[in-house]
Each structure stands twice: as structure tokens, then as C-alpha cells.
């Protein structure tokens, strides 16, 4: 990949070039090539305002399909706001106003004919605090499928989602017990199972491991790498090592709501183009 001239590295060329492979492959120096990805989400000049206050400025980036894209940056720089733009969760915040285009499979999700509820079935979300419903483990996972009127084999889909979330073996004999009785890490994997059960295309995760201990965090990280074979993952994290370990692409937002640099994760962490990004990554501020 050619080196960008500009310090703001969000050019079409840099973001749509084939990625070198999985994060792990990139870190090991292997170029798998075969995992080149097309963008599934294209942000075009997204601005977000809360009342008079602007939280995001002119965000343009392409998020590749079936990859992990990490959003990093200091508190208040707009990471969660951007994540919520992707599946129109900002619609639920009365003061929020979004301008610009957010293309999902080439369709602007802000077009009048887009149903946000249907959109969120294709673009699911996992939050920082595990938030299982006060229902059985089974019903937590089956919930979205039932709402959709799923007519196939519900038991099989629940099992598949729990296996996909690396939780099946731990809960298969207690599917009727409450999701709230699980440990924090198990609850978060249950939430991931709930998110993947309706077979979305994209899963948005806002600091999904920050409330968990190191063992549970590592399980979630492994899980994210696994599910990115099938789903596109966009994850907000404050943990630089986590971003470096699990993501293929990294977007660095800085104070003021700017996207300052977006590139292959390896490039961002080893040789960022922007001095502010380097200072942030090396812990000089943030
Ligand atoms: N519901 C809201 N109403 C008004 N302002 C908001 C709202 N949510 C976020 N903001 C403001 O928008 C800016 C970006 O917030 P956001 O939560 O997106 O940042 P963040 O990067 O996710 O931060 P953190 O790392 O602390 O989670 C901040 O100035 C914040 O105060
Ligand atoms: Mg946030």
C-alpha cells in the first residue's frame, strides 16, 4: 500500500485498498491476500449535532465487510456517537441531528424509505454493560427471532447462536435459567448470541469488554475474531492493545469529533501518519 501524502489519511485510495489479511496475519507478517474485502458501510461527510453542539465533523470512511474495525480515541471524541449513526440509534436521542450520508450496502440509511427497526435487524448492537433481558437464557436468544416471526427450527437457531458466541457448552443444561444469573462475561456472550441470532450483517460493539475481568475479556476478544469470519464488526474500545490485537482497520477520532486517521491497524500502531495519533497511541495524552 502506498504511503498517504496527507496527514489526514481517509482518502478513497487508502481506505478502499485491499487489506493485508486478518489482524493476526498482518501482525505475523503474513499476507493472506485472499481476505481482501469490499466496504459494506460508507460514511460520507457525516456531521452530528446535539442541539447546538457539534459532536462529529465530516466523517468519511469505508468499513470493510467481514472484518473488525476498531474506533479509538479519547473520551468525548464521538466514538459512540459514530457507532450509533450506523444503525440510526441516534434517532432515539431527541437532541441529536445527523447530516451527511451513511451508506449500508450502497443505500443511505437516512433515506426516508428506510425503516430503522428493520435496519437494526441487519445491524445489531452490543453495549458496554451486559444487558440480558430478565428472561431465560433460551428466550434471550430466541427473542429477536420470535419478533421477526421466524418459522424455522427455533431450538436449532438458539443453539447455533449460543455456539457462535462460545457459550453453548457452559449453558446447554440450563437454558431455562435466567440470563441474569450468569457471570458478567457469560452475560456479555449471551448478549452477543442475542445479537447474532437474527443473522445480522453487522455487529456494533461499544466497549463490550470494558466491564469484564481479563479472562472474560480474552474470551470476548477470541469471540470477536471468530465472528468476523461471518459478520462485519465495528468495535469501540479504550484498550489500545485490544484494538491492535483484534482489529483489521483502526479509526482514530480525536477531541472535537474529527476522524484524524483511518488505516490498517498495523499501520496505525506501528507507523501512524499523524503526530497527534502517534501521541495518543503512545499515551502522551488521552
Ligand atoms: N445524548 C447526548 N446528549 C447531548 N450530548 C451528547 C449526548 N451523547 C453524547 N453527547 C456529547 O457528544 C460528544 C461525543 O460523545 P460520545 O459519547 O460519542 O463520545 P465517546 O467518544 O463515545 O466518549 P467515551 O469514550 O467517554 O464513551 C460529547 O461531547 C458528549 O458530551
Ligand atoms: Mg462512548
Task: Give a brief outline of the structure.
The chain is of the alpha/beta class. The chain has helices spanning 12-16, 23-27, 79-86, 116-122, 137-147, 154-164, 168-171, 184-196, 214-227, 240-246, 265-270, 275-281; strands spanning 39-50, 53-64, 68-72, 96-104, 107-108, 123-126, 202-206, 232-236, 249-254, 258-264. Helix 6 (154-164) crosses helix 8 and helix 8 (184-196) packs parallel to helix 9.
The shape is globular
Distance between the termini: 29 Å
Small-molecule binders: adenosine-5'-triphosphate, magnesium ion
The major pleated sheet works out as: 6 strands, mixed
- Uncertain stretches: 1-34
Estimate the helix proportion, in percent: 25-40%
Number of strands: 10
Rg from alpha-carbon coordinates: 19 Å
Beta-strand portion reads 15-25%
In the CATH scheme, the class would be Alpha Beta
Amino acid at each position: 500500500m502506498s504511503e498517504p501524502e496527507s496527514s489526514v489519511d481517509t482518502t478513497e485510495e487508502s481506505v478502499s485498498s485491499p487489506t493485508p489479511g486478518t489482524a493476526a496475519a498482518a501482525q505475523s507478517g503474513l499476507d493472506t491476500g485472499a481476505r481482501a474485502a469490499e466496504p459494506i458501510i460508507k460514511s460520507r461527510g457525516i456531521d452530528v449535532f446535539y442541539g447546538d453542539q457539534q459532536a462529529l465533523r465530516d466523517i468519511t470512511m469505508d468499513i470493510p465487510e467481514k472484518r473488525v474495525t476498531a474506533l479509538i480515541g479519547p473520551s468525548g471524541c464521538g466514538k459512540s456517537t459514530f457507532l450509533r449513526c450506523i444503525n440510526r440509534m441516534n434517532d432515539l436521542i431527541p437532541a441529536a441531528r445527523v447530516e451527511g450520508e451513511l451508506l449500508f450496502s450502497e443505500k443511505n440509511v437516512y433515506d426516508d424509505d428506510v425503516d430503522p427497526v428493520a435496519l437494526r435487524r441487519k445491524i445489531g448492537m452490543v453495549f458496554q454493560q451486559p444487558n440480558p433481558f430478565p428472561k431465560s437464557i433460551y428466550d434471550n436468544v430466541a427473542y429477536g427471532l420470535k419478533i421477526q416471526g421466524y418459522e424455522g427450527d427455533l431450538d436449532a437457531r438458539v443453539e447455533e447462536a449460543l455456539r457462535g458466541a462460545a457459550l453453548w457448552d457452559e449453558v446447554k443444561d440450563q437454558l431455562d435459567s435466567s440470563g441474569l444469573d450468569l457471570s458478567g462475561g457469560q452475560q456479555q456472550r449471551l448478549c452477543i448470541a442475542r445479537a447474532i441470532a437474527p443473522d445480522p450483517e453487522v455487529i456494533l460493539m461499544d466497549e463490550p469488554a470494558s466491564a469484564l475481568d481479563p479472562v472474560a475479556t480474552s474470551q470476548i476478544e477470541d469471540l470477536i475474531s471468530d465472528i468476523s469470519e461471518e459478520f462485519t464488526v465495528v468495535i469501540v474500545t479504550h484498550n489500545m492493545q485490544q484494538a491492535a490485537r483484534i482489529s483489521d482497520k483502526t479509526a482514530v477520532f480525536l477531541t472535537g469529533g474529527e476522524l484524524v486517521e483511518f488505516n490498517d491497524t498495523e499501520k496505525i500502531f506501528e507507523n501512524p501518519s499523524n503526530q497527534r495519533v502517534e501521541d495518543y497511541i503512545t499515551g502522551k495524552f488521552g
